[in-house]
Specification:
CATH architecture of the largest domain: 3-Layer(aba) Sandwich
Largest sheet: 6 strands, mixed
Structural class: alpha/beta
Number of helices: 10
Strand order of the largest sheet: 6-7-8-3-9-10
Strand content: 25-35%
Order of helices and strands: EEEHEEHEHHHHEHEHEEHH
Low-confidence stretches: none
CATH topology of the largest domain: Rossmann fold
Shape: globular
Number of strands: 10
CATH superfamily of the largest domain: P-loop containing nucleotide triphosphate hydrolases
Helix content: 25-40%
Number of domains: 2
CATH class of the largest domain: Alpha Beta
Radius of gyration: 17 Å
Length: 240
């Protein structure tokens, strides 16, 4: 699981979005090799948090540390090159491009052709459905296939830290299970993950640790196992 070294840390992070203080003084840590989830109700500030971590939104206060160095206010393209990749809410694929063209976009900053080819082969092994549809327009894929494509495109950057925003959104239950199984497999292969997800039970079920966010603040953090048993978490997010 964790080597004990922090790959990501925030200190007193504040982020305003649309004139609203969406993230309020958040301290969060992700250790190398961990799968950590961030759960909470819609509007809690989870997506804003992820956008600040990948450089899409600049914090108004506080600090973001990645591999021990401050990346506060750094642009997204620089963070991608440094190993941070985001799978956004809503997937953000290029609908008129083919599956394979979308995947290649994920490797735009790389020049190692042999490595790119090897990673594409590994990706098609991870998502056989994408291999079957590699020349198909991405916009014609099902929701689940588009989510696979969004994850695959992000992996082509060879991220050391993968940020996932609501991967289960809009998917049929059977596809949700498949996506989460794949996320767990990616983590087992050594990629550190921070997962934002409204389906708290599923997220905690595959995570090492979790944070609970409410109204822009972290109100609770513990091992995933302990959070699953916590009465407050069960009542608010697990339906009992």
């Amino acid at each position: 699981m964790s080597s004990g070294m922090n790959i990501l840390q925030t200190r007193g992070l504040e982020v305003a979005y649309g004139g609203i203080r969406a993230v309020k003084g958040v301290d969060l840590t992700v250790h190398r090799g961990e799968l950590v989830c961030l759960i909470g109700a819609n509007g809690a500030g989870k997506t804003t948090m992820l956008k600040s971590l990948c450089g899409m939104l600049a914090p108004s206060h506080g600090e973001i540390l990645y591999e021990g160095e401050s990346i506060t206010g750094k642009p997204s393209y620089e963070l991608v090159r440094r190993g941070i990749s985001l799978v956004p809410e809503g997937r953000g694929i290029f609908g008129r491009l083919t599956v394979e063209e979308n995947i290649k976009i994920g490797a735009y900053a790389r020049r190692d052709r042999a490595g790119i080819r090897a990673d594409m082969d590994r990706l098609y092994d991870l998502f056989p459905r994408l291999s079957e549809r590699r020349v198909q327009q991405a916009g014609t894929l099902s929701g689940g296939e588009q989510q696979m494509l969004a994850i695959g495109r992000a992996l082509m950057c060879r991220p050391r830290l993968l940020l996932l925003d609501e991967p289960s959104m809009g998917l049929a239950p059977m596809l949700v299970q498949k996506i989460f199984h794949t996320i767990k497999r990616i983590a087992e292969e050594g990629v550190t993950l921070l997962l934002v997800e409204q389906n708290a039970k599923l997220a905690l079920g595959i995570s090492h640790r979790g944070y609970v966010m409410e109204s822009g603040k972290i109100i609770l953090t513990d091992s995933a196992e302990a959070l699953l048993k916590n009465p407050k978490v069960r009542h608010a997010y697990l339906g009992g």
